[in-house]
Amino acid sequence: MRGSISRLSQKLGCGFIVGENGREACFDLSSLEGVDIRALSVGETVEYEGHFGNERLRAVRVRVMPTPSSKSASGSEK
Hints:
Low-confidence stretches: none
Structural class: mainly beta
Strand content: over 45%
Mean pLDDT: 88
Distance between the termini: 28 Å
């Protein structure tokens, strides 16, 4: 699934993602892969897996999606 960070609490170590389908999923520090919560910002595009738990959709395996500008800056695009 893909979505964007809608709310973020670095102090509490958690946040929320709104998926492309409009559903909101919560995540915490243990759900992040390859990124520190301090590096995340609201509006950032992420990819994740959604699982239901405690009557809420929970995002796991949250990964930041590269932006087009980061691809061209690294020289991987011609």
